Amino acid sequence: MAKQIRTVGVIGLGTMGAGIVEVFARGGLTVIGVESTEEFADRGRGILTRSMDRAVSRGKLDEAGRQEILDRITVTTEMGDLAPADLVVEAVPEVLELKHEVFGRLDGIVAEDAVLASNTSSLSITAIAAPTKHPERVIGVHFFNPAPVMQLVEVIHTLRTDQAVTDAVRDLVTGLGKRPVVVGDRAGFVANYLLFGYLNSALTMVEHGHVSREDLDTAMRVGAGLPMGPLTLMDLVGLDVCHHIGDVIYGHSRSPLHAPSSMLERMVVSGRLGRKSGRGFYSYEGPGGRDVV
Ligand code: 3HC
Predict the structure, then answer these.
(1) pTM of the entire structure?
(2) Which residue's alpha carbon is at the smallest distance from atom 54 of ligand 1?
(3) 59 CB under 6 A from ligand 1?
(4) DSSP string computed for 15-68
(5) Could you tell me if the ipTM is greater than 0.85?
């Protein structure tokens, strides 16, 4: 188990999946990205190309380097194309049934010693591994948003994960220039469990009219030295994603710290999902960037 990892498959090319493809390709690995439809595949290609273009325009990458990275990436709608992968990272939407469908099919596609990983932000890796015949090769690799920038990767082992698999994935993450931490399989793992208690407290303060959105963000950015305040961060992550993660963690912790926020729920239902929808706690629709709404 756990041969050297040279070819990686990534299933789901949304913001996180496409970012993960970029990380692996920049690290010199061959990457096969899989999407369910041509339309989503094109969206994934678009995310990748824009990110590469930004790196070129910032002088971080030259044209030849950009092409070299893109040449390592194939995007397909056929899961069967994952056959040569030594590691597959699933980054499909956070719906357990969807993850089960993916993991159920992978056994029949990849080699017996390939590693199967999920980038879930909060669902149980043990539960995701249920349909596979080889749960000992299933592991979590949780990247943070934006994946090409954020250093941390949580490597989540279950009670069944083979130690050699954990070691191989931790070493791979280190080789990519990221910082792995190895954690057990509990809701929210480590970083999101703690982070979402904090984000939820911020929501409660705004909901109760204790502080304005901008002042709250300024307090944490300037006072606690964080790169962005909690509301700006939720807009970046996506309010629907935050809502889902909060729900999963609360389902396990039952801690008042994680209790669902009705304001967040209202925003999600009204389609205010943060940056990706143009509006969240702030508006991203105007030419000047961001406004309070
Ligand atoms: N994709 C790729 N690269 C990006 C990017 C993106 N979406 N956004 C920014 N970058 C790159 C820029 O190109 C730039 O690269 P360079 O230094 O090589 O030129 C670098 O990041 C800095 O970007 P900017 O100068 O434009 O902006 P900032 O300095 O304000 O940094 C930020 C932006 C990196 C997003 C920073 O504000 C930050 O670190 N914010 C906190 C993010 C965070 O906490 N993420 C974790 C969220 S929780 C999570 O992901 C868990 C999950 O389960 C939900």
Answers:
(1) 0.94
(2) 237
(3) no
(4) HHHHHHHHHHHHTT-EEEEE-SSHHHHHHHHHHHHHHHHHHHHTTSS-HHHHHH
(5) yes
User: Which pLDDT value is given to residue 288?
Assistant: 61
Annotated active-site residue 192? The verdict is yes
**Alpha-carbon Rg for the chain in angstroms:** 19
SS3 state of residue 179? strand
Site to probe by mutation for ligand 1, drawn from 149, 150, 198 as the one with most ligand atoms within 8 Å of Cβ, is: 149
> How far, in Å, is the centroid of ligand 1 from the Cα of 259?
28
- Please indicate whether residue 119 is annotated as part of the active site: no
Q: What is the pLDDT of residue 164?
A: 97
Across-strand partners of 208? Answer: none
Q: What is the pLDDT of residues 111-152, one digit of tens each?
A: 999 999 999 998 999 999 999 999 999 999 999 999 999 999
- Concerning whether 208 is annotated as a catalytic residue, the answer is no
DSSP-derived 3-state class of residue 113 = coil
225 lines ligand 1 (CB under 6 A): no
Give how far the C-alpha of residue 12 lies from the chain's centroid of Cα atoms, to the nearest Å. 10
Residue 144 Cβ inside 6 Å of ligand 1? The answer reads: yes
* Beta strands at 7-11 and 30-34: parallel, antiparallel or unpaired: parallel
